[in-house]
Design brief:
By secondary structure, the chain is an all-alpha fold.
Amino acid sequence: MAGHPGAYMGWWGFIGSPKQKNVTTYTISPYVGSPLKGSSERAIFNVWRRTKAQALYVIIPGIIVWNVWAQARDYNEYLYTKAGREELERVNV
């Protein structure tokens, strides 16, 4: 114990103080708990459920962007034809 200066009181947390009261600790055997049991099956169904819930938020804007891009691509190809150059010349004059 720490009766005089320089005496060893113990390691951190065990420095000679009285034990705490009313502290309950619980443990589980490592052989009983299997933390990954069924996780792959749950992961597959959880990914499917979350994907299904978010599908419209991705598909609808994707369709809109695809259509805008396709129209712009087609119009750009039209401008490189003879009729497209004539129309562009007529509009810019």
